[in-house]
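Hello,

Our lab assistant flagged a job as stuck in the queue for most of the afternoon. It eventually completed. Since we weren't sure the result was trustworthy after the delay, we are filing this so someone can double-check. Below is the sequence as submitted and the structure that was eventually returned. Let us know if re-running is recommended.
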Amino acid sequence: DEALNGYCDRIHITVGADNSITVTDNGRGIPIDKHRQSRKNTLETIMTSLHSGGKFSTKSYQVSGGLHGVGISVVNALSEFMQVTSRRDGVIWQQNFARGKKKSKLEELGPTSERGTTV
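-- returned structure --
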């Protein structure tokens, strides 16, 4: 959705020797503020709840693709381990998940001049 709406022009996919997959983009990064419905941080909500992505808000995207808000939460549910890094508003944030569950608190890693998301 970030690319379709002009916020991202690079997506890099890496397959590791251990068959892990890393996807990095240069979009706006996943928001980390409190989600208005779940009361958890937005990154955690998107990763652990169905139908919680930006396409369900009239303010987020003019165009959207994907799997109707179930894509990343289902990938998380099926993953042994998932680390999400969001570079947004000058700060790097990171949170870990496994089998659809939160495994760490949202952690502020420090300042950055970059933006985007790595999963």
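-- support follow-up --
The delay was a queue issue, not a problem with the job. The result is valid. The chain has two helices and seven strands. The beta strands are 11-15, 21-25, 82-88, 91-98, 101-102, 107-111, 116-118.
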